[in-house]
C-alpha cells in the first residue's frame, strides 16, 4: 500500500495527517513508551520481538537485524528506541535520504560501537550504492572502503564491530529482496484498534497531566484513524479546548465539541475527506465517476484527491476505486446521513446515471 502518499503531498498541515509536523516531534519524545511493557497493542510484534531480544540477551550476542514496516505514526521509531533500551545498547539514528553516498554510510558504520543499534529510517529511500554496501555490512560485518578514483582506485576492507540494524519503512514492497532477506526479523505494524488507541490516549493524558474520562478517551480514539500519532495530536487540541472552554476535564461532550471545531468528524474524516465524499454522493449519485471529474468538483488537484483523501476513504470502506471510476459504498451514504438514490443497490447498478453526469463536468 501507498501509505507514504497520504501525507507526502499534503498541501497544508492536516490535523489528521499521519506524518510528524510542527511541534509533534518535541511532544512525541515525551510520550514515547520506554520499554516493550509500556508499548500498547501490536500484540504479535511485541511477543515476537520480546523473544528475539531475550534470546540475544541470553546468548550475550547482538540481536538479529530488525525490519519494521508500517504506515507513518504507528510506532516504528518508538520501537527502535525500545529495542535499544531493552538491549541496553546505544542507538545511532539516521535515515535513507540522509545517506546520499556509500561514503556517508561507511563513515557511520565504521564509527559504531560493539552492540550498537543503528536505526535507519525510511530505508527504502537509500541510494543504490549505499544499499549494496549495507548488504555486506549486515551479513559479514565488513565494508569495502574505496580509496581513489578511476583505474587506480582500491578497495580497502574494513571489519566492523557486530551491530544491530533496525530499518523502518512505510513501503516494504519497495525494498529489494536481497535487502529484505538480510533482516533476521521483520515486524509488520498494523493500524490500531479503537480500544488500543483509547489506552494510548489515557496513557498520554496521564503524562500530560490532563484529566480525561473513559468516554472522552474513546471519543478521541475513534477519530484517530488507527494511528497513535494522530491520537496524541487530537488529544492536545482537545486539551486546549477543555482548558479554555470548560473546566479542563475531557469528557465525550468536550472531545466531540473540540474536534468539531477542527472539523474532524466521528470517524476521523476531515474537511477534505468529507468534501470528496459529498461531491461523489451529491453530484454524482455515488459514482462511478472519474478521478479528474471528482477533483474538479471539489476544487482540488487530482493528486490531492488521489493521494491525500482517498487512501483513508478506501481503507475505511467508504470509497472504492474501480476500473470505471470512483464509487461510494453504502457505508458512505450512511456516514453522511444520506439515502442512496435507488434501493436497487449501490455499486455497479446503473452505470448510465454516473457517466451522464460526468459529461456535465467533463466539458
Ligand atoms: N504502541 C504505542 N503505544 C503508545 N504510544 C505509541 C505507540 N506507538 C506509537 N506511539 C506514539 O505515537 C507517536 C508516533 O510514533 P512513532 O514511533 O514516531 O511512529 P513512526 O516512527 O512509525 O512514524 C509517538 O509519540 C508515540 O508516543
Ligand atoms: Mg518514525
From TrEMBL:
Residues 62-193 form the AAA+ ATPase domain. One of its GO terms (molecular function) is four-way junction DNA binding. One of its GO terms (cellular component) is cytoplasm. Residues 12-192 are annotated as: Large ATPase domain (RuvB-L). GO terms for biological process: DNA recombination; DNA repair. It comes from Streptomyces filamentosus (Streptomyces roseosporus). DNA binds at residues 302, 321, 326. Residues 193-263 are annotated as: Small ATPAse domain (RuvB-S). InterPro entries: AAA+_ATPase (IPR003593), AAA_lid_4 (IPR041445), DNA_helicase_Holl-junc_RuvB (IPR004605), P-loop_NTPase (IPR027417), RuvB-like_N (IPR008824), RuvB_wg_C (IPR008823), WH-like_DNA-bd_sf (IPR036388), WH_DNA-bd_sf (IPR036390). It catalyses: ATP + H2O = ADP + phosphate + H(+). ATP binds at residues 31-32, 73, 76-78, 139-141, 182, 192, 229. It is found in: Cytoplasm. This is Holliday junction branch migration complex subunit RuvB. Has 3 domains, the large (RuvB-L) and small ATPase (RuvB-S) domains and the C-terminal head (RuvB-H) domain. The head domain binds DNA, while the ATPase domains jointly bind ATP, ADP or are empty depending on the state of the subunit in the translocation cycle. During a single DNA translocation step the structure of each domain remains the same, but their relative positions change. Residues 346-363 have a biased composition (Gly residues). Residues 266-363 are annotated as: Head domain (RuvB-H). Its EC number is 3.6.4.-. Homohexamer. Forms an RuvA(8)-RuvB(12)-Holliday junction (HJ) complex. HJ DNA is sandwiched between 2 RuvA tetramers; dsDNA enters through RuvA and exits via RuvB. An RuvB hexamer assembles on each DNA strand where it exits the tetramer. Each RuvB hexamer is contacted by two RuvA subunits (via domain III) on 2 adjacent RuvB subunits; this complex drives branch migration. In the full resolvosome a probable DNA-RuvA(4)-RuvB(12)-RuvC(2) complex forms which resolves the HJ. The RuvA-RuvB-RuvC complex processes Holliday junction (HJ) DNA during genetic recombination and DNA repair, while the RuvA-RuvB complex plays an important role in the rescue of blocked DNA replication forks via replication fork reversal (RFR). RuvA specifically binds to HJ cruciform DNA, conferring on it an open structure. The RuvB hexamer acts as an ATP-dependent pump, pulling dsDNA into and through the RuvAB complex. RuvB forms 2 homohexamers on either side of HJ DNA bound by 1 or 2 RuvA tetramers; 4 subunits per hexamer contact DNA at a time. Mg(2+) binds at residue 77.
